[in-house]
Amino acid sequence: MTNLLSNSTTFTPGAILVDSWGWDQTNIDFFRITKRSGDFVTVEKLKKSTSPEIGFMENDESPIDEVDPSFKPMRKKIKTWNGVERGFSFRNYTGGGWCSLWKGNKVRSTHYA
After folding, report:
1. If you average pLDDT over residues 9-31, what whole number do you get?
2. Distances from the Cα of 72 to the Cαs of 23, 37, 43, 69, in angstroms?
3. Quick check: 74 and 88 in contact, CB under 8 A?
4. Pairing of strands 27-37, 40-50
5. Are 15 and 32 in contact (CB under 8 A)?
6. Burial of 64 from C-beta contacts in 10 A (0-12 / 13-18 / 19+)
7. CB 101 within 8 A of CB 7
8. CB 44 within 8 A of CB 67
9. Which residue of 2, 13, 33, 73 is most buried, as measured by CB atoms within 10 A?
10. What pLDDT is attached to residue 1?
11. 17 closest CA partner among 7, 26, 25, 27
């Protein structure tokens, strides 16, 4: 298990993505692009490291270089605004979140139970 330390600057194979989603809490998932074809990418889900609680019902999350075997690789279309690739959503409901390039920092998650 190796920590991934570098951030991603383009939606190319090997880039790490962060998916922040939820309604009453903020859930964090990490993905890695395995293939790019035109506007489409194929992603695999990565396992993550979660800090001990750092605040009231808050944790920091970061990806680790280990694939989550319970997730079937998925193909998604990258959305572009004003000529800039922005990411995509895995969900189509309020609180569905957004998957974008990971900037290399720990990401805050929240929970209520």
Report:
1. 90
2. 24, 18, 9, 7
3. no
4. antiparallel
5. yes
6. middle
7. yes
8. yes
9. 33
10. 47
11. 7
- Give which of 53, 47, 41, 46 is closest to 13, Cα–Cα: 41
Q: Which of 7, 6, 9, 18 is nearest to 43 (CA)?
A: 18
- Give the 3-state secondary structure of the chain: CCECCCCCCCCCCCCEEEEEECCCCCEEEEEEEEEEECCEEEEEEEEEEECCCCECCEEEEEEEEEECCCCCCEEEECEEECCEEEEECCCCCCCCCEEEECCCCCEEEECCC
Could you tell me the two tokens for 15? 């880039």
Tell me the residue type at 110.
T
How buried is residue 20: exposed, middle or buried, by Cβ count under 10 Å (0-12/13-18/19+)? Answer: middle
Beta bridge partners of 28: 20
Query: Left (φ > 0), alpha (ψ -120 to 50) or beta: where does 57 sit?
Result: left
- List pLDDT tens digits, range 54-95: 778 888 999 999 999 999 999 999 999 899 998 888 776 655
- Type of residue at 112: Y
